Queue: 2 jobs
Job 1
Amino acid sequence: MKSVQDLANEIVAREGGYVDDPDDPGGATKYGVTLATLRRFGADKSGDGKVTEQDLRGLTRAEAAQIYIRHYYYGPKLDALPEAVRASVFDMYVNAGSNAVIVLQRLLNRMGESVTVDGAIGPETIAAATRAHGAAPDHFADAYGIARRNYYYALADARPASRKYARTRAGGKGGWIRRAEEFISPRYHLSEAQHRARVSKWV
């Protein structure tokens, strides 16, 4: 498995530079880090006693990666999950917060485990994930990736402003879907026709 530093560096690269998209509920981001996140976990880079958009604009790739490693990987205890799903859960945790764990917990319940769906990784979730991976070692990561992809489609179903993240202007797979499929075996990727059928009812 890649090191957590390598995984964090890849996430920073996926997230891109400074973006202020009015359709993003999280507001302005740099390398995926929001101003709210920087205020919680970052530093006053300008030295004016406040963490502002100026500090966000000055965030470096290395600083963003360290925020992710400390607060989005070790903080929620992703390191205690089976290795097969750590990278995908980590990537989604950066992208969607504790929803990444909720998706995992709902999957575990569908796989026959009995897990509280609370978005937190504790002994119950760790044990259930370990058992589920042991029962289906060749499929667990794909099952999580598919559940993640379904989460994004459902989110776009419910929130029209988010559809541009799941579908390109030309109708192809948007960033959310491509990102989820980076962690799914190619044989389980949706074809372009399947994707277009899935989003055909969107305006």
Job 2
Amino acid sequence: MPGLSRPAPAPKPSSSPDPHPQARNATALELGARMGYSPTQVSHVETALKNATLPFCRAADAVLELAGTEESFEREWLKMKYGALLEGFSGFIEYERRAVEIRLYEVGAIPGLLQTHEYATVLAESYVRRGTITDDQARERIEVTAKRQEVIARTPPPLIFVVLDEGCVRRFVGGPAVMRAQLDRVLEFAEQPNAMVQVAPFAMGERRPFDLPLYLLTLPDRSIVSYAESTHRGHLERDSRFVGPILSAYYQLQKHALSQTQSVAMIDQVRKGTS
């Protein structure tokens, strides 16, 4: 998935009508006290001597009642840090880092959480050759992929349910050596106690409920968010009215997919064909 990080910005005053002028006109001492930061920290961010952190932006949003709005500092921080990501993906990354359960369905390529460096590099370079992204953006994309994988090694690790469209396994990327190492990575991941790997075979036909990549994240408070992606846009959904049916469809996907034993056998058979 695309990635391009930049330094986080200092919060800026909004140009839209201000519903909370007293809060916004507070001194650094007053604002810091309400945010839980020292006046010096607030002043350094305001004068751009230091970049705002994500917790700082969220604290400012809470005090200024901007959380969840178009002009929130958190939104600006994410846009600056992940400027070249598909819409919605920057917010998804922040949720993914905190998730206690991750459910994903991928089409056509091994998901980023399981990609080897070589596999991710081949994919990114293919976008450069097509003129979709620049060399710098390709490097940043690879770095974001590697950074996301830290969630797998987290203590305690999240439960991770992976369903791969059969095309993810059979579509060779980067030649035999790259693909063999990549399938080794998937097989090693499947052995972890917190992991479940299944393949949705082509034979599922119309029983496959999704045509595009999909992620479902269960957060520590047991709320669930979903992220779906097309070629040009990603959509992060937090409303349980819409996430619930997606979760039900995911359970149906798992029901009709191959078991983990059958899936591992298929992946291993394809892997042997790379020798």
